[in-house]
Amino acid sequence: MTTTPLSADVLVIGWGLAGLVAASEALEAGRRVILVDQEPRTNLGGQAWWSFGGLFLIDSPEQRRMGIRDSLALATQDWFGTAGFDRPEDHWPRRWAEAYLEFAAGEKRAWLRERGVSFFPVVGWAERGGYGALGPGNSVPRFHITWGTGPGVVAPFVGAVEQGEREGRITILPRHRVTELLTTDGAVTGARGDILESSPADRGVESSRETIGEFDITAGATIVSSGGIGGNHDLVRAAWPERLGTPPAQMLTGVPAYVDGSMHSVAATAGARLINGDRMWHYVEGIKNWDPVWPSHGIRILPGPSSLWLDATGKRLPVPLFPGFDTLGTLAHLRATGHDHSWFVTSRQIVEKEFALSGSEQNPDLTGKDVGLLLKSRLAKGPTGPVQAFLDEGEDFIVETDLESLLEQMQRHPGGEALDIDHVRREVVARDLEMDNEFTKDAQIGMLRSMRGYRGDKLIRTAAPHRLQDPAAGPLIAVKLHVLTRKSLGGITTDLDGRALGSDGEPIPGLYAAGEASGFGGGGVHGYRALEGTFLGGCLFSGRQAGRAAAR
């Protein structure tokens, strides 16, 4: 079956956050739009719907109320120190970084507020660095949690496209998988692909790939906003860079299976230049979801700074690879150990205060905008409900009342045979001895005490320093941690209008790209590493740029 050919002013491929923003901008400019995606409509909003909703802002009212002094100059120093741009093809990523920083320090917050997006008042501090002032990491807290988490970020743009649909100005086509970009005299003029059979799959659940027909769509402008490769472990391993060691034999998946990278090759066939494919962002604090939605579903622990982090053999990770400080530095170190997992050794008191879980579904208080639940879950004694569920049900958690019992259970756990139990015991005892004074030679303890100088950390994010074996701190807890796939940092090269560029550096007429498909702008706006809160923001900014330019 082949459907009647369709046409529009603007065709958007992929209905994640970047695609929704691009479509809404084209609608606002009065253009006729077609929005296609290979998934059932239950997945409108894509990966962003599942996110924690963190957004990177610079010198915001929320920061100022928390006593944080931020500036465009400081944020620029942090961004470029983190990105490490060092390639000729980083020309456009650099330009995008400069433009995005201006956006984050300027109209980004007001633009979102106009659309009903608001923020949790406590600003989080992600990617803390721990190196010199010119090294990677955030010098100050910049992680603004959206009230409503990922669904709260997505909602205004879903609302805009659904209003356009009711008015007959946009056609939304689920189960349409693009396999080819149409070209005429060197210009992209639309797309062709397969119609997949209808699927009742819930959001995030893997859906059928049975083909029932074909489609053709012609358009004046085509925007590729199809995401990255994090759901396809084969592509992740093929792109894995030598600087991060060997790819893990076993990984968890932090994104739904439809994040398969299929549009990268389609765009390349049409002439788009793909760059920085070896730059990627994966977490090392992954835990197996006890209630999975998609295959190998993992959840990331968003850790505070207090847990003792050990490799698979029981050796403590070196300075400054503490929880929450340097994601890719920790990944590179752990890949050199020859094992696919590591361990947190911690206390219930630390878990209560410092363990948050990534994902909208793991934060029902923030996602549901439920103040009562938030007060009970975040400020009351005890872990949040989702964290407690992992303590009760998660196979990666071990809870014991004393150190010897904990060590025995860790060694019995799958992978625990690699542990040097005597060394783990020495690490725990040595750390606890450092707690007797307000001063210390232990850099991690010194850093966590410093972090409590920030009101936000002291209020809800960093436990009071204590001995892990202190009975008052509750039972001891060990958590087995896995590598969790997440983001592609490279992609389709674009100029500041989101126009896809060919191998000669010139724009391909009619073709645009946005979101993770374009490395969040330019083919890699983050360089080698990210500052966090910058992925959703990159989708917002690149989607806006591409949508406005395509509408012109």
Automatic annotation (TrEMBL):
GO MF terms, alphabetically ordered: oxidoreductase activity, acting on the CH-CH group of donors
UniProt-listed SUPFAM superfamilies: FAD/NAD(P)-binding domain
Residue spans crossing the bilayer: none
Protein name per UniProt: FAD-dependent oxidoreductase 2 FAD-binding domain-containing protein
Sequence ranges assigned to domain FAD-dependent oxidoreductase 2 FAD-binding in this UniProt record: 9-536
UniProt superkingdom: Bacteria
InterPro entries assigned: FAD-dep_OxRdtase_2_FAD-bd, FAD/NAD-bd_sf, KsdD_DH
Keywords: Flavoprotein, Oxidoreductase
Pfam families (alphabetical): FAD_binding_2
